[in-house]
Amino acid sequence: MKSLINWVWIIAGIFAGLLVLVFFFQHLYLTSKTMQTKKSLEKFENLASKLNDFCLKIAGNEEPLKFEVDEETVAIYATNSKYEKYEESELERFVKEGMESEGKFLCLKLKDRKLNCKELNCKVSMPFLGYLSEKFSLSSLINKLMGKTSITTFNLILKKEVDKIKIEKR
């Protein structure tokens, strides 16, 4: 009878340990995701600010820009209306196909989040920018488990035209 009670306590201890471990990893994952979202929003705000500053420059000016997006970013694009919305699957297709967007609002769509748009000082013409998923590999799985985020880097050129900014991929 005592050995049965000992086994129950051992199993209960293992179960409690696993439960604590699961809660720890869940908390770690949610914290990492929140930090990643915050960084994405910060990069978006910096891009909008940079574009507003560039609006004030004289036509003919050009400037290179290295811009990184992480796996939480579905798309960044320009539009004429901050109320114009696309499905996430549409945005992913636009990014992969390199489609162009144009407008006075710069919008950011994060995975499973509402659309965030900023009005700019001038019109912008740009490609849809977003995370381009990589093929599955063991190293990408290990990086994800260790909390390292995958990024897509875009080398862009900002070109000031008379009535707008033209953003091109290099």
Count of extended strands: 6
Number of helices: 3
Distance between the termini: 75 Å
Largest sheet: 6 strands, mixed
Tally of individual domains: 1
Unreliable runs: none
Strand content: 25-35%
H/E element order? HEEHEEHEE
Shape: elongated
Helix content class = 40-55%
Q: What descriptive keywords fit this protein?
A:
single chain; 170 residues; elongated; alpha+beta; 6-stranded mixed beta sheet
Task: Summarize the structure in words.
This protein is of the alpha+beta class and 170 residues long. The chain has one domain (2-169). It contains three helices and six strands; from the N terminus they run H-E-E-H-E-E-H-E-E. The protein has helices spanning 2-55, 88-97, 138-145, and strands at 62-70, 73-79, 100-110, 116-127, 151-160, 164-169. It has a six-stranded mixed beta sheet with strand order 1-5-6-4-3-2. It is elongated, with a radius of gyration of 22 Å. The protein starts with a helix and ends with a strand. The model has no long low-confidence stretch (mean pLDDT 88).
Short summary:
The chain has helices at residues 2-55, 88-97, 138-145; strands at 62-70, 73-79, 100-110, 116-127, 151-160, 164-169.
Topology readout:
Layout: H1 2-55, E1 62-70, E2 73-79, H2 88-97, E3 100-110, E4 116-127, H3 138-145, E5 151-160, E6 164-169
Parallel strand pairs: 4-6
Antiparallel strand pairs: 1-5, 2-3, 3-4, 5-6
